[in-house]
Design goal:
A: 207 residues, mainly alpha, Four Helix Bundle (Hemerythrin (Met), subunit A), 70% helix, B: 348 residues, 0% strand
Chain lengths: 207, 348
């Protein structure tokens, strides 16, 4: 009973806030609705017993990705009038994308109705017994059967990270930003930085 | 507590629901009461270090000062700037406050004295504390004012940076404990130091990690010396600049509830939680909750002490410490810890 109430509560909010992401006029409001949708999706995952995935969804998407997203959207200076002017021109493209998404949704529901794909059998991963906590079940799968794919995913992320660093790296030299050397700043003494002068009246000083 | 309500003639489901609601109310009220007292302690410690008296007028020794302040802000008018984004402006302090209280659901005060004893307790705390940044970011943006906006940008960068090293520190603790459950982590510390001391922090691999965790906790709660989000010499009052009365008080209470949460995490993860510090039978006669509160209070005292004595960091120094010192260091320690535990046959 409590579970059913909780399910409909979370599900309604997910769908409603997803609609609001598209409908909201202010892009910052859109991102905030998106965050609400993520958070309630995590609630749905707790209900199906995937508490580890639910926590990861909140930590990674709500806690890190969406913050950066919000950050960028807040800094944007968007002209709403210019954006709406292109509506008629972009409408066919938008309709085409919507049609593709609808077709995919129908295909997915159709396949599920037809019995779905049985990933667990015959030579797939054996189903874990229900009493194993799902962190352990997931760990056993990721670090056992799927270790190669897991490592490959890690290497791809590492390469992407190094790529981002290379793209933004400024080699030292003329035109580069001034670098801070904390040791040098701390070693600086007042004698080197401050000069006391007593200029006579009516005369300037030379430094 | 469920059993008590069942004995009153309720069915199990209803008894559970009533017991949980009662526990939530009790914990929230206790946290709010401790926040009020801790604000008083903070001001007294600051006063003592700065050679002045601190609050000493309202009630004996000024003990009721926080309640007087509370009544004062409650009776003030909430002013909403005309250029503010009204809805988000009002939701932001509510989010900060709610999130600060929600994290207490998985904190064990004593053996079995916890609202939700879940498997992923530590991850839950990480998830909830990462939500805390939204209160700050939303208030900064919705105020439609320059200083709050600068403060919001600083806060989001600062919290994301230090969450990374906190995450790695927690991995080290979890490797030793073998569980994400906070009660399980505390139980793992029973007799950990040569069978004499109940604390993870005595291990040479975990002590440096505790230091990293403590400093990151200061940065995560935006306490001095990392209080750049409300640096009054640069940003007026940071993201709280446009707030008044209760909406301001909610930020204030939420901030202190977060500080207490970080102090209690120090206690639970590194210093044995509700267990007495040494394995001496006489010490076990003292109730666990007393040990928990005493240890948490010692950490809070250290927070106030640091506030009174250390000057504020510059923002680039803050980022440098997070990314160039703590992140590589905690990564090396994760590798070292797992290597050490593998060599010792901990996972066999």
């Amino acid at each position: 009973m409590i579970q059913a109430i909780a399910f409909y509560f979370f599900a309604t909010i997910v769908v409603a806030s997803a609609v609001m992401v598209v409908m909201a006029r202010n892009p910052v409001h859109s991102v905030l609705w998106l965050i609400l949708a993520f958070f309630n999706a995590a609630g749905l995952m707790v209900l199906v017993g995937a508490e580890f995935i639910a926590m990861l969804l909140v930590i990674v998407y709500v806690g890190a990705v969406a913050v950066l997203f919000l950050f960028v959207v807040m800094m944007l200076d968007i002209d709403f009038a210019a954006m709406r002017a292109g509506f008629a021109r972009n409408a066919p493209l938008g309709l085409a994308i919507a049609a593709v998404l609808l077709a995919e949704l129908l295909l997915g529901v159709g396949a599920w109705q037809a019995g779905g794909i049985r990933l667990g059998t015959p030579d797939g991963a054996a189903l874990q017994p229900a009493d194993v906590p799902n962190i352990e079940a997931l760990g056993a799968l990721l670090y056992g059967r799927y270790i190669l794919l897991f490592e490959v995913a890690g290497i791809i992320l590492l390469v992407a990270m190094i790529g981002a660093i290379v793209l933004t790296f400024q080699p030292p030299g003329p035109g580069a930003r001034a670098r801070q050397d904390v040791g040098k700043q701390i070693r600086r003494r007042p004698e080197e930085a401050v000069v006391m002068k007593r200029p006579e009246v009516g005369k300037g000083i030379e430094l | 507590m469920t059993a008590f309500f069942q004995s009153l003639g309720l069915s199990y489901e209803w008894a559970w629901a009533v017991a949980t609601l009662a526990a939530i109310l009790i914990v929230s009220l206790l946290v709010m009461f401790s926040v009020a007292m801790v604000i008083y302690v903070d001001r007294k410690v600051l006063g003592a270090i700065m050679l002045r008296r601190g609050p000493n007028v309202v009630g004996p020794f000024g003990l009721l000062q926080s309640f007087a302040d509370g009544i004062k802000v409650f009776l003030q008018e909430t002013i909403i700037p005309s250029a503010a984004n009204k809805g988000i402006f009002l939701i932001a302090p509510i989010i900060t406050f709610t999130v600060a209280l929600a994290a207490w659901a998985v904190i064990p005060f004593d053996a079995g004295m916890v609202i939700a004893d879940i498997n992923v307790g530590l991850l839950y705390i990480l998830a909830i504390s990462s939500m805390g940044v939204y209160g700050v970011v939303m208030s900064g943006w919705a105020s439609n004012s320059k200083y709050p906006f600068f403060s919001a940008m600083r806060a989001s960068a600062q919290m994301i940076s230090y969450e990374v090293s906190i995450g790695f520190v927690l991995v080290c603790v979890v490797l030793f404990a073998g569980t994400f459950n906070l009660s399980g982590i505390v139980n793992g510390q029973q007799g950990f130091g040569l069978g004499l001391i109940n604390a993870y922090a005595v291990h040479p691999l975990l002590f440096p990690m505790w230091v990293v965790f403590f400093i990151s906790a200061l940065a995560e709660t935006a306490r001095a010396p990392f209080d750049l989000t409300e640096a009054e010499s640069e940003l007026v009052a940071g993201y709280q600049t446009e707030y008044s009365s209760m909406s301001f008080a909610l930020f204030w209470l939420g901030e202190y509830a977060n500080i207490l949460l970080m102090c209690s995490l120090n206690t639970l993860l590194f210093w044995g939680g509700w267990l007495p510090p040494f394995v001496i039978p006489a010490l076990y006669a003292v109730p666990g909750i007393v040990w928990f509160l005493v240890k948490t209070f010692i950490f809070f005292f250290m927070f106030s002490w640091i506030w009174a004595t250390v000057p504020r960091y510059r923002y680039d120094q803050l980022m440098r410490l997070g990314w160039k010192v703590f992140l590589p260091m905690s990564l090396v320690f994760v590798a070292a810890t797992s290597g050490y535990l593998m060599a010792m046959g901990h996972f066999a």
